[in-house]
């Protein structure tokens, strides 16, 4: 009996985009002897195990297996934990996150709301019996205690399971449903890159703890129409122009004494970043609501008083970056700044890089250097389309550690660097363990091979030299003009033109259905220059201009059939697809809008107001970028282009109201369209059958809409 091989859409869904079985979330011990990471046991297994690599021996071993720890029981998640995973786009299971002490001897993690620790050197794991459900457990730096959140309270327990107690909990008389300690609020986790709400002192004798009061936030209701017997879920959603959660910060000692950290919260309400290391006082970054000014503040943990270390201002907005601000071991402020038209690494007031690099993140800071992630800046001698590299920066200059063209990231500790490299001509990512620049070990990946290789050309298109990826069918003859599928994200935070194999798998599959697929990163997408990213201030529609510019530029060099052009996208890309068929039917002949933000007044404060401002003061900008206002629907009335709208009914990020309001507006305007509701699906589509069939249905729609054979 023979079994038919699984289709690419089924394998793509079953393997969660071929990420299952790939190692991730690396931590290096300060002595360089151990590398800790997460990995599931195969390319179709969702349950991550905690692993340890012995660097000297090159041997890997399991430090914690969730199935053994739970006795084979099905994992159960609290509503708060499901929300945390949705914010981080976490589709895995088992151990999806962990924290360690400073020595990387003890790790803590939660499973089914229960607290577990693992002794990483010994390779043993056990449960600490505490009341649950447990969220975000983190050991103290010395490994004696573990702090965790339960029911809005921050608690600590001894590493042996003794002395469990609440350090700080919602005040008597407070609405325990709106006040919590130790958790990040919605917009911090969704938009600021801050997923944490508490931080240990280096000595382990106290913590910085965020207090979040969600009461001011407007309440929305998310229901599942396919399950009418279930009550709707109430969520606090801070839509543009409405009130945010009230966020305060406290120093909390182990005896429960609280000292509030004081700053001008009226002018700087956003707590964007917190850093506490042995190199200096606690450091916080706070932003104004319009994100055009921000303060770097040092905190006196004894009094809660703050002093300004640095201040930034920008006429458009100020971005937040991974890894900064922080102190160097010598006590200097390390930050990323936009100076002289470039994005640079700075120590205090002094820039250490120039316009040749566009700095993306700080990966590690040591006595000798800073490890950064960067792409080529606009002053680079040659374009490196889609490439991201790892560099060492110090007084002597800049040295590139990653050599192969591709997308690289790194984690470092104890003289050991874990270099994660994705390149165009090799599936997945290679993980090398380097000491003094030489490979001493590799970390094995169990991820499945995709079974197809993207036929991708990384290039630039149009007058603005827009970064592009062009994908042709595997068996393409190189001559026949092909119908075009634009496949963008096209907006802030989402570069898709990457010099990496797996980044283009879905686009290649669409290409193999008979399309020339174009991915274009126009203005607003990161990785080129501050001016490139900030060009979309007050007007998102510039991103559509760049998609058209890239398309027409490529058509001058490649056989593209401009009489049959479609566009598909998700989230911002879904909005862009809807905008394309409504505003430019002369260019686009069909569109698929997945989870589109159709009315920016319904999207969250921190993201939307950064680009479009306060809707009360910038109504024109919101109307221009909306799909459902007169600006979105009035012109041109003809021709009507086919549009498929896809949306998950359980989406709490881009709520389904976006799709429903667009459909109503289209119906009122007499514009034909299709709506595909996904019952029980959030902003992610992790369900295997849904993810597979969604790809197949899109191809069917495109063939019908473009009248392909």
Quote the distance from N terminus to C terminus.
34 Å
Task: Write down the CATH topology of the domain at 456-705.
Answer: Rossmann fold
Largest sheet: 8 strands, mixed
> What sort of overall outline do the alpha carbons produce when their principal axes are compared?
globular
| Assembly form of the protein | single chain
Q: Helices and strands: which structural class? A: alpha+beta
Q: How many strand elements?
A: 44
What order do the strands of the largest sheet run in, or round the barrel if closed? 37-38-40-39-41-42-43-44
Low-confidence stretches: none
Number of helices: 13
Give me the CATH architecture of the domain at 456-705, please: 3-Layer(aba) Sandwich
Helix content: 10-25%
Radius of gyration: 25 Å
Domain Dipeptidylpeptidase IV N-terminal: 112-355
Domain Peptidase S9 prolyl oligopeptidase catalytic: 506-706
Keywords: Hydrolase, Protease
GO molecular function, one term: dipeptidyl-peptidase activity
